[in-house]
């Protein structure tokens, strides 16, 4: 089978398409015939060697995919060959024609969801749900700011927050991005490059502030976030690419919470809850992943450059 392999950490071009043996599932494992694989920013950090946990070289990147069950290992009764599924993790990597998964990493993909959309679920939708519901404690009637709403996690969070009955504000760096965010249900959008946009957000709440901020770039925004919170407000940090200065008095005055999250920390019971909720949202139509670009697997390097570029418009996926 064809698979992207990384022999040493470095530039996107370290990702090379190679012919490798097709894996055989052991007991409790499933082999997925990958129809689309999701590209997440974390895969660029790992490929460059700048991440806390690095794989043993050589390796195949990727944890998100959607496709068909190709083979099941002994003892697997949950899935049948030919079933449509998506993954939330992989033992062998998903930038490939076939991906080996543990049975707990595989979830049914509703008929109505095409494979590229299915490849947008594992990290982005699960992260949005954990950020908004499990860590953010979002409650209907509250106001949430999705700070970085135009990308894979942001568009998911906007759709989810709307379905949960929140008033939703979202930011994006381009007019096209802001239009996309409004199309996903945001009540108001703001330009995170405009010098006064946090003031605009505050005045949109009548000066009270927002109850919850889902933060995708904390190293730029956390200091200002704390000033835009309502009393008892929460910031959930999902993304950060460096250090930031804050004034702790902003949190004290509002009795505000700063809550971090990393999806991989979610315990098994909470992961299971996430995928039950995603399944319901996909079936019901409130969750509709947005695909910005479908890129051939052989051009994985282009996909890694694209996911780190400004002007996000949803999710980038690779097609084997
Ligand atoms: P993405 O699809 O590349 O989207 C990036 C988003 O960040 C876009 O909406 C982009 O908006 C926005 N952005 C750019 N400049 C910003 C600014 N100054 N303020 C606020 N937002 C800004 O990436 P993603 O998959 O959504 O992931 C977003 C971040 O979350 C990444 O850093 C990723 O590593 C992290 N993440 C963390 C977890 C976790 O478990 N903690 C899980 C998934 C992702 P424009 O392009 O319109 O400017």
What would you say this structure looks like, in words?
The protein is α/β, with parallel strands linked by helices and about 325 residues long. The protein is built from 10 helices and 15 strands. The chain has helices at about 40-50, 115-120, 120-135, 150-165, 175-185, 195-205, 220-225, 250-255, 270-285, 300-305, and strands spanning about 1-5, 15-20, 30-40, 65-70, 85, 100, 105-110, 145, 165-170, 190, 210-215, 230-235, 255-260, 290-295, 315-320. The strands form 3 sheets. Strands 3, 4, 5, 6, 7, 14 and 15 form a 7-stranded mixed β-sheet that branches. It has a 6-stranded parallel β-sheet with strand order 10-9-8-11-12-13, sandwiched between helices. Helix 3 packs across helix 4 (about 150-165) and helix 3 crosses helix 9 (about 270-285). The model has no long low-confidence stretch (mean pLDDT about 100). The site of NADP nicotinamide-adenine-dinucleotide phosphate (NAP) has 33 residues, from helix 1, helix 3, helix 4, strand 9 and helix 7.
Q: What form results from the Cα inertia axes?
A: globular
- What would the average pLDDT be, to the nearest integer? 98
Per DSSP, the total helix count is 10
Structural class: alpha/beta
| Helix amount | 25-40%
H-E order: EEEHEEEEHHEHEHEHEHEHEHEHE
Q: Over the alpha carbons, how many angstroms does the gyration radius reach? A: 20 Å
Distance between the termini: 10 Å
Approximately how much beta-strand content do the residues carry?
25-35%
Quaternary structure state of the chains depicted: single chain
pLDDT under 50 segments (min length 5)? none
Total DSSP E strands: 15
Biggest beta-sheet profile: 7 strands, mixed
């Amino acid at each position: 089978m064809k698979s992207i392999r990384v022999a040493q950490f470095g530039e996107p071009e370290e990702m090379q398409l190679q012919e490798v043996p097709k894996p055989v599932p052991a007991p409790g494992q499933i082999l997925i015939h990958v129809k689309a694989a999701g590209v997440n920013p974390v895969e660029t950090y790992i490929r460059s060697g700048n991440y806390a946990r690095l794989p043993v070289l050589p390796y195949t990147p990727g944890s998100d995919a959607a496709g068909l069950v190709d083979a099941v290992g002994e003892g697997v009764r949950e899935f049948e060959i030919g079933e449509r599924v998506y993954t939330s993790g992989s033992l062998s990597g998903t930038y490939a024609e076939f991906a080996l998964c543990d049975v707990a990493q595989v979830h049914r993909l509703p008929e109505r969801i095409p494979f590229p959309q299915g490849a947008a679920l594992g990290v982005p939708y699960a992260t949005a749900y954990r950020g908004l519901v499990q860590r953010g404690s979002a409650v209907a009637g509250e106001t949430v700011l999705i700070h970085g709403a135009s990308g894979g996690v942001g568009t998911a969070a906007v759709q989810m927050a709307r379905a949960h009955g929140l008033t939703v504000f979202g930011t994006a760096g381009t007019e096209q991005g802001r239009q996309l965010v409004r199309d996903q249900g945001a009540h108001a959008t703001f330009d995170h490059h405009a010098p006064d946009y946090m003031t605009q957000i505050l005045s949109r709440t009548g000066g009270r502030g927002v109850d919850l901020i889902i933060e995708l770039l904390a190293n730029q925004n956390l200091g200002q976030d704390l000033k835009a919170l309502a009393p008892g407000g929460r910031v959930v940090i999902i993304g950060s690419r460096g250090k930031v200065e804050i004034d702790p008095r902003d949190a004290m005055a509002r009795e505000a919470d700063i809550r971090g999250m990393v999806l991989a920390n979610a315990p098994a019971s909470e992961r299971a809850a996430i995928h039950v909720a995603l399944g319901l949202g996909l079936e019901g139509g409130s969750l509709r992943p947005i695909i910005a670009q479908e890129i051939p697997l052989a051009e994985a390097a282009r996909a890694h450059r694209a996911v780190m570029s400004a002007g996000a418009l949803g999710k980038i996926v690779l097609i084997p």
